[in-house]
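Loading example: each entry is read as two labelled lines plus one structure line.
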Amino acid sequence: LAKTTQPISMDSYEGQEVNITCSHNNIATNDYITWYQQFPSQGPRFIIQGYKTKVTNEVASLFIPADRKSSTLSLPRVSLSDTAVYYCLVGDVDSSYKLIFGSGTRLLVRP
Amino acid sequence: GAGVSQSPSNKVTEKGKDVELRCDPISGHTALYWYRQSLGQGLEFLIYFQGNSAPDKSGLPSDRFSAERTGGSVSTLTIQRTQQEDSAVYLCASSAALVSSYEQYFGPGTRLTVT
């Protein structure tokens, strides 16, 4: 499974766009990039998944450059409730079953 | 619909006692996973079930840990002779076999404290 590197923490203010970048230099051809969000005292929650270019859903956007060695999770107009830990995971979704969580990025949204 | 549920939500036990943690996955989800998260740490994979079988038990920390799943539904994680280092939040997740195994739905967890 490819190793991922992401910032330990980020600060933002309500209404701003937040971009969290994850590096995964050893990503394999069959690997997908998946992001999870975890609030305190809760289990992680799937946010978004992508393979290349751009994916958007009602919660976030995921930008993946052509070389796929990094990816950026974009949260538009964050609110206080977006304060959470965000995890980037990389792996083969068809053959890999266990999620390998790194340390994640602790996002703090201030008023 | 109902999500993944776990019980108890909190468990305090004395060192040396056995504990059982329960997970009810989302109905129809054939895959079930157990993880644990120590204070301020990331998640650690423990074991995975496909149906009632566990193809990979390599994540279990020691032979004091065991898990079973019956009827392709409820799973129990048992920790025998608990130690203080077993204190953590134990999280269960499930996923439908026909979608990406990476889209796992997590329960709220059981917070285990060994005194």
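Chain B has no helices and eleven strands.
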